[in-house]
Design brief:
Length: 395
């Protein structure tokens, strides 16, 4: 190593620091009143999971829940790492997709796990995207009235969105995520190297939630996204780790403040920026894979900003800045993303169903600018309709 003009001591120190940065994960502490845990973010955490978990599991036994795709790609190295540290684990593999969050699938899985045999101190490890996270979290919360839970999220969306907040959920006949519990993990291992096998489209979907975090209350994060967005969509691990850390830290701040009720009153509700429009778009495309949640959110962010401009809350130049960031990366940034013309009335009816409407007014998360979201309970439906028509909807 050529240290140039540096002393050998200083040069060595810099090398050690660089190695450390490579092997030491970033950490986001989540401190809730009843429970504290950490989100660890870095490369190769799945292979090293045994080493991270051995000191904190109450018993060296675990059941791993994962889906077929993740099982093929990442389960062997998790199992090997657990075995190396003497943790006995048995894997349960569910089919890929939202269908695995059904009550039927849950019942089958929990029976299989009970047949296999578990004790109160056996840990449930969820290895996979948000579907596996929601399912395994609910299994952990309900198995023997609650066993320890470890989350290993493997999609960008689940690393930034499900790692913090403790929400678990199943779908019922009446709708998505209607059954569930708040249940906190012992630790979350967000492995950036796992995201290398993710389809670019899935990275785009997760990235929308990161941009959302910046828009809500972290203008520095949005500016960081403008500089590093392309690296994230290309799957570069260092940029991914940094983005996940910033987004998790942001969400942790919101969740912790909300718990203590010290947040600028709107608290968790702000996390729904872009989601009213997003959910209406998802409902139109019937959750059949044509439109991913994050893609819908990406369009939703643009629409929420456009509505904020129309209502006179947000300067037009901020809308332009948001749009140009999304479009530069090839992200969905408007209704022109779709091959069909959508109906404004259909979207509004869907939004009204999604939330309470009072006197013809809808509640929305709006922007005063980048990094300044607020909730408003009195947006006239007519204004929303006008904006949607301007954006290219038919009546
Ligand atoms: N609990 C929460 O706070 C929370 C937050 C956001 C979303 N969710 C839920 O999460 C779900 C969506 O999550 P998602 O987008 O992660 O979907 P997902 O779990 O279905 O994963 C998407 C696809 O990626 C595959 N996959 C996962 N990891 C991979 C990897 N490393 N490499 C290659 N392929 C991989 C999966 O097999 C699947 O086909 C929804 O059910 C939603 O309700 C929950
Ligand atoms: Zn979301």
């Amino acid at each position: 190593m050529d240290c140039g003009d540096d002393t050998i001591d200083h040069g060595t120190h810099r090398i050690v620091e660089a190695l450390d940065a490579h092997t030491q994960p970033l950490r986001v502490p989540v401190r809730l009143e009843s429970h504290q845990y950490e989100v660890l973010i870095g490369t190769d955490l799945i292979s090293r999971a045994g080493a991270w978990l051995a000191p904190i599991l109450p018993q060296k036994r675990a059941v791993v829940i994962t889906d077929e795709t993740v099982a093929r790609l990442h389960l062997p190295r998790l199992m090997a790492g657990l075995e190396e540290t003497g943790i006995q684990a048995k894997a349960f593999v569910v089919p890929v997709g939202e269908e695995s969050k059904s009550l039927t699938r849950y019942a089958g899985l929990i029976n299989e796990i009970l047949d296999h045999g578990v004790e109160r101190r056996t840990t449930v490890i969820g290895l996979g995207g948000g579907v596996v996270g929601d399912l395994s979290g609910f299994v952990a919360s309900s198995l023997l009235r609650g066993v320890p839970f470890v989350q290993i999220p493997t999609t960008l969306l689940s690393q930034v969105d499900s790692s913090v907040g403790g929400k678990t959920g199943l779908n019922a006949r009446a709708g998505k995520n209607l059954v569930g519990a708040f249940y906190q993990p012992q630790i979350v291992l967000a492995d950036s190297s796992a995201l290398a096998t993710l389809a670019r489209r899935e990275r785009v979907a997760g990235y929308a939630e990161i941009v959302k975090a910046g828009l809500i209350a972290d203008p520095e994060l949005f500016a960081w996204c403008e500089r590093h967005g392309a690296e994230i969509l290309n799957g570069e691990p260092a940029a991914l780790a940094e983005a996940v850390k910033r987004a998790c830290a942001f969400k942790a701040r919101v969740v912790m403040d909300d718990e203590k009720e010290t947040a600028a009153q709107d608290g968790r509700a702000l996390l729904n920026l872009g989601h009213s429009f997003g959910h209406a778009l998802e409902a139109h495309f019937k959750y059949d894979g044509r439109l991913l949640h994050g893609e819908a959110v990406s369009v939703g962010l643009h629409l929420a900003a456009a509505l904020s401009v129309a209502l006179g809350h947000c300067p037009e130049e901020d809308l332009v800045r948001i749009d140009s960031h999304l479009r530069k990366l090839g992200m969905p940034a408007g209704l022109d993303w779709f091959d069909e013309t959508l109906s404004a009335d259909e979207l509004i009816t869907s939004m009204a169903r999604d939330k309470k409407v009072q006197d013809g007014k809808l509640s929305f998360v709006l922007l005063r600018g980048i990094g300044q979201a607020f909730t408003s309970r009195d947006v006239e439906m007519d204004t929303v309709r006008d904006v949607l028509m301007q954006e290219g909807c038919a009546l």
